[in-house]
Amino acid sequence: MKSSTVLILAMATMAASHAAANDFKLEYRVERTEAAALSLDQCADIVRKEAAEAGYTQSVDRHPGQLVTVTGGPSGGGSSFIVHCIAVDGKTVSVVQAIDYRGRGATAKRFADRVHAALTKAGR
């Protein structure tokens, strides 16, 4: 999980430098779903599909049975996302973070809402 930690710290550092200019927006969603309804792999696949449909680049880091992290954003920059799909006590916890660092907060909100809705729907 070291690469995930480094990525999170890098994103936080980058975002913090823009926060002073009041351009920084963070959208955050958390959901707990029964693992029988939404596995780690299904969670990651849904995030990747939503990112691809939004035209975002993406990267996946897997720790089987524990964690899948999907990161990315638009190729032109301006925002990024990180989604953790975490196995905890028979549940899949999805943590969606969409970060906008160019003052277009609506873009981050739309993406976070889109991914959260898709994960919630799949977990029903």
Question: What do these coordinates show?
Answer:
The chain is α+β, with helices and mostly antiparallel strands and 124 residues long. It has a single domain, classed as Double Stranded RNA Binding Domain (2-Layer Sandwich), CATH 3.30.160.110. Helix content is 40%, strand content 37%. It has 3 helices and 5 strands. The protein has a 5-stranded antiparallel β-sheet, with helices on both faces. Strand 2 and strand 3 form a beta hairpin. Helix 2 runs antiparallel to helix 3. The chain is elongated and about 40 Å long. 31% of the residues are buried. The model has no long low-confidence stretch (mean pLDDT 86).
CATH class, named: Alpha Beta
Question: CATH H-level name... which superfamily?
Answer: Sirohaem synthase, central domain
Series of H and E elements: HEHEEEEH
Strand content: 35-45%
Radius of gyration from the CA trace? 14 Å
Keywords: Signal
InterPro entries: DUF6180 (IPR045752)
Pfam families: DUF6180
Short description:
Residues 1-19 form the signal peptide. The protein has 3 helices and 5 strands, in the order αβαββββα. The protein has helices at residues 2-19, 40-53, 105-122; strands spanning 25-34, 56-63, 67-74, 79-88, 91-100.
Entry keywords:
alpha+beta, Double Stranded RNA Binding Domain, 37% strand
How is the topology of this model organized?
Elements lengths: L1 H18 L5 E10 L5 H14 L2 E8 L3 E8 L4 E10 L2 E10 L4 H18 L2
Antiparallel strand pairs: 1-5, 2-3, 3-4, 4-5
Helix pairs in contact: 2-3
